[in-house]
Specification:
single chain, 168 residues, mainly alpha, 0% strand
Length: 168
């Protein structure tokens, strides 16, 4: 494999690995928010922001962890036939199907970008009583979809290398 591709795979994998390891701890942020929600509802006045903030934290946790999950191969697969295949046959199949993933992610990114630009242009807010701005979570979603596309390309290059019998 050319040095440029090897460098690309190393950089994208390193960025997504570090970000994924960091984002893993966001589950504690969400638990803390929900714990505060329970405490405030029981002993004080209920907080308006807790449920929606927990949802935002969960979206960030899920979306930013996606590229790392793809890198680890911990995504869900229909393992009816795939588990019995050789590594080379799996690489062929993965190299083909990654284009479907990239197309899907491209459509998501296009829609997310349109929604984010609308949100930024009109200072869009949630319709709940708390009324937070929506652009921060939309930017997070677009960033995570972009990182997922980069990781999918990295996985494609690793599959091609596996098919050729070369290691990256």
């Amino acid at each position: 494999m050319p040095a440029v591709i090897r460098h690309y795979v190393r950089v994208v994998d390193a960025v997504n690995r570090r970000l994924g390891r960091l984002v893993m701890y966001m589950i504690f942020v969400m638990v803390a928010i929900l714990l505060w929600s329970s405490i405030s509802k029981t002993f004080f006045f209920p907080s308006l922001w807790t449920l929606e903030m927990a949802q935002f934290a969960m979206v960030a946790y899920f979306m930013l962890g996606g590229p790392y999950a793809l890198q680890l191969g911990s995504n869900v697969r229909m393992d009816l036939f795939y588990g019995d295949w050789s590594d080379r046959k799996k690489a062929w199949f993965d190299a083909f199907t990654v284009f479907l993933l990239i197309f899907y992610l491209g459509v998501l990114l296009y829609g997310g970008w349109e929604s984010t630009s609308y949100s930024l242009q009109y200072n869009e807010r949630s319709s709940t009583a708390w009324r937070p701005l929506l652009w921060p979570i939309k930017v997070t979603m677009c960033l995570s979809i972009f990182l997922m596309i980069l990781q999918a390309l990295s996985e494609f290059f690793k599959d091609v290398a596996r098919i050729r019998g070369v290691s990256i």
